[in-house]
Amino acid sequence: MIGLGLEGYDPDSQHDAAVAFHVRVVADEQRIPRHQHRKGQLILALHGAITCEVENAMWMVPPQFAVWIPGQLPHSNRATPSARLCFLFIEPGAVAMPDRCCTLKISPLVRELILTLAVRSPEKQEPATRRLVEVLFDELPRQPEEQLQLPVSPHPKIRLMSETMAASPAQWQTLHQWASHFAMSERNLARLVVSETGLSFRRWRHQLQLIVALQGLIRGQSVQQVAHNLGYDSTTAFITMFKKGLGQTPARYIASLATTSR
């Protein structure tokens, strides 16, 4: 990933309350390997999407949403080609933010505050910039959380299931398929999924499907294409699953993101 003004920047080298950067993703640098830093980090998706993975969960961040990563939390990031992002680094204790990784739905006001901060030099923060940061810190804690995370696990079976189902969701859909693959009973595999993820296999699979669906829709695939890629025989059944998970039909959800995109 190439940052506009981010090259060579060490988030922990300075103690400014907040510093923001524009980031444009190039094709051969779509992944930032596992790392950590003292500062908390908010990654705002402007165009395209980013997936953030921590030890036991994965977050999908579509446009107009952001993932919050507390300081000192090891994480890796993967973005869609040509994605445009904003990185906001926040000094520990500067503002009351969640102590866990989460996805936040970003208001137009907060988005514009972050974008404005990103075009100002981090080398010298003028009084006007500090006032902007104060307003940003007033608004950030008010941003609502969105349930776009997928609980994962270092357990090799869970890891294999999540990676394979994300890559080929239509081919790997049922608990029976996986139980046969692992040569274990469906009951024991169902218990393993619950113990490692906190969700039933069905709920866990639906959450993964939501993430894969959003990735496809954001890339411009039609609702019918996404439903087919997920293995749904009926587009209506896919729309029902999507609306149950995110509260809107796929078309309305994507349209709501587009209305505030830049």
Distinctive features:
9 helices; alpha+beta; globular; disordered N terminus; 7-stranded antiparallel beta sheet; Arc Repressor Mutant, subunit A; 262 residues; 5-stranded antiparallel beta sheet; Jelly Rolls; single chain; 2 domains; 12 strands; DNA-binding
Q: CATH superfamily of the largest domain, called what?
A: Regulatory protein AraC
Distance between the termini: 20 Å
- The number of domains is 2
Strand content: 15-25%
> Main β-sheet: number of strands, strand sense, barrel status?
7 strands, antiparallel
Q: Fraction of residues in helices?
A: 25-40%
CA-atom Rg in angstroms: 19 Å
H and E string: EEEEEEEEEEHHEEHHHHHHH
Oligomer kind: single chain
**What is the number of helices?**
9
Q: What's the CATH architecture of the largest domain?
A: Sandwich
CATH topology of the largest domain: Jelly Rolls
Q: Order of strands side by side in the largest beta sheet?
A: 1-2-9-4-7-10-11
CATH class division of the largest domain: Mainly Beta
Number of strands: 12
Low-confidence stretches: 1-5
**Chain-averaged pLDDT:** 86
Helix/sheet category: alpha+beta
Shape: globular
Task: Give an account of the 3D structure.
It is globular and about 65 Å long. It has 2 domains: 2-146, Sandwich (Jelly Rolls), CATH 2.60.120.280; 152-258, Arc Repressor Mutant, subunit A (Orthogonal Bundle). It is of the alpha+beta class and 262 residues long. Residues 1-5 have low confidence and may be disordered. 39% of the residues lie in helices and 23% in strands. It is built from 9 helices and 12 strands. The protein starts with a strand and ends with a helix.
